[in-house]
Amino acid sequence: MDDPVIELCRSGIPTLDDNILSGGLPRGTMILLTGSSGVGKTTLACQFLFNGATKFNENGLIFTLTESVTQMKRFMSQFAFYSSRAVEEKKVQFLDMRTIYKQMGMERDQYTVSDMNSLLRIIDEVITNYNIKRLVVDSITAMIFRMPDKEKIRDFLYRLGNIIFDHNVVALLTAEEQSGTRFYTEQGIEFICDGIIFLKEREVGNTLLRTLQVVKMRGMAHSRSEHEVILTSNGIELTERTF
Ligand SMILES: Nc1ncnc2c1ncn2[C@@H]1O[C@H](COP(=O)(O)OP(=O)(O)OP(=O)(O)O)[C@@H](O)[C@H]1O
Ligand SMILES: [Mg+2]
Questions:
Q1: Which residue among 154, 183, 193, 228 is least enclosed by CB atoms within 10 Å?
Q2: Which ligand is nearest to the CA of 39?
Q3: 61 has which bridge partners?
Q4: Would 238 be classed as within a structural domain?
Q5: CA of 138 to the centre of ligand 2 (A)
């Protein structure tokens, strides 16, 4: 029997796909998109979804936890990659987790195991029902915040990873960077994820640049250089400049 081939999913950001990665993000994987506040995590994640819909005819969905859907759409619609048509046609969907929690009666301080099972079931159903190929959780830090302990968080993430793998989806999970340590997240989410994309700020001369670095991508050779990021109304673009 032939070995299974890793299928790739183009982010639509040329330097990321072709210069840093070996053609795109591996399908069936969960990728941590981490970095400090305001560095561009939500922008990159939404750009990935809209590129999927408008350039590759793939359905995408974002679970929002820290911003309302209205607010996020308002911010994202400022970027050239945003497509109202993709939203109208449900090729890119925004789902507010707070609405889902309300519907599920999950507005409590700490989730039960049954709540966590329901959450995974909903994610699985949403992926199946809407034929989702690209998924974003913004942020995973907020999603796991009310889970009782580290073991249950790990178990939740492993099972989420299995759902992503079974559906051959690419999932970007945003997380706030834990600064001052060698870990990317407080809960060690990076060990369970298949890939890590790290957005950073770097002082060069008297300006603060944004950079992007792929720290890990299981299953492929990739550059680990920090590439300069240009954030404009075109969204995120990467230059050839590295550090
Ligand atoms: N048209 C634009 N041109 C240049 N920069 C922009 C533009 N629109 C937004 N930005 C920048 O994008 C930044 C916010 O990016 P984004 O919301 O993606 O960051 P984030 O990492 O998700 O932040 P948070 O951790 O707060 O969720 C703003 O600080 C702003 O500087
Ligand atoms: Mg954000």
A1: 183
A2: 1
A3: 93, 135
A4: no
A5: 7
Tell me how far the alpha carbon of residue 184 lies from the centroid of ligand 1, in angstroms.
Answer: 20
- The alpha carbon of 40 and the centre of ligand 2 are apart by a number of angstroms equal to 7
Task: Determine if ligand 1 sits within 6 Å of the CB of residue 37.
Answer: yes
Domain count, the chain: 1
Return d(Cα 168, Cα 163) in angstroms, integer.
Answer: 8
Query: For residue 222, is it within any domain?
Result: no
The domain that contains 142 carries what CATH number?
3.40.50.300
Closest residue by Cα to residue 79 from 206, 225, 194, 236 = 236
pLDDT tens digit sequence for 54-109: 999 999 999 999 999 999 999 999 999 999 999 999 999 999 999 999 998 988 89
Please report where in the chains the tokens 């890119």 appear, as a residue: 92
In a domain, 17, yes or no: yes
Q: Is the CB of 23 under 6 A from ligand 1?
A: no
Q: Is the peptide bond before 223 cis (omega within 30 degrees of 0)?
A: no
| Residue 25, domain extent | 8-198
